[in-house]
Amino acid sequence: MHDIRAIRANPADFDAALARRGMAPVTADILALDAERRAFQTRQQEALSRRNALAKEIGQKKRGGEDTTALENEARDLRNLIEATDELGPKLEDLLARLPNILDAEVPDGADETANVVLKQHGEAIELPGAREHYELGEALGLMDFEAAARVAGSRFVILKGALARLERALGQFMLNLHTTEHGYTECAVPLMVNDAAAYGTDKLPKFSEDLFRTTDGRWLIPTAEVPLTALSLGEIIPEPTEPLRYTALTPCFRSEAGSAGRDTRGMLRQHQFQKVEMVSICRPEDSAAEHERMTGCAERVLTELGLNWRRVFLCSGDTGFGAARTYDLEVWLPGQKAWREISSCSNTRDFQGRRMNTRFKRGKETVFIHSLNGSGTAVGRALIAVMETWQQPDGSITIPPVLRPYMGGAETIG
Question: Do 144 and 192 belong together in one domain?
Fold first, then answer.
């Protein structure tokens, strides 16, 4: 959500900021609607003052035996204006709610992912002779079943069995333990369904309603634990967080994948249901830049500990998500695909979500909107893919990364 006062003060700057995202100017429409709404509110206030004056005048004339019909008719007309619904306010809020966050000045310009900037890289894009993709490995082992999942639920689902199911569980537990014991995050068990206020506050509504699954009673299945974790303080004034509030959760995530027809149809890369460890931070404005670097570092350590090859990418203006002011993607090298694929996305939303949630803290006499950050710590399903492809052996077996072996009963190999 955007501050209408800031738009009034610098409309040209606001249009220029949105132009970086490839958007046409919008402030003329915003300011026209804002002016119309303020004029309506002024008329209501004037009508209320006039009605109060009329009430006194009518009382005086009645006591003097004078005819008050005209004054009473005027008072009735004023009452209709006073009681009229402010239909312009919701229209203005809806218009503002559909506009993306303002990008940080450092975000590189560019139309799409081809303009993203690689900031650093850990390991090389290794070539494994005869490397197979994860679904080829899993199906050959008899531990990954897409056909059975399709019979049960339809396309874009998978059933993992035996050691692969345990490996997926091990990945999630390893990530949670790392983030809670060494990175200072508080583990949370959160609802997998949220209401409109939580989905709106974390910028998933109204723009992304088609990407979500909705229940028959009007709740939304979470696309990521970012939604319930960030909304923990929805609508509240919290104590000033002198240290960032850090939360993490391992949850199933649900996405309709609207608009992704034909993309990544084989395997587990793009599914309707998947596991993810999420990291969320709530902090003061002056702390969010450093927290963004720290959060991304936490996700990077996960990949390093798993023995994966990864790189950090600074997303350009045309590829940065709706609610983010800046985003780092972590991409992992998949030898089977022979490609870098996103496995984590860490974003600083500045006060964008704080305004939508109306979450603030007191600093003296001032009320300040919180800054919120979110990041994958990481996507468990994609980590499973990366482990399978990176640690595959020529005979089709998979070496279990040493850091996961305590979670696998000491086993060193699947196959």
Answer: yes
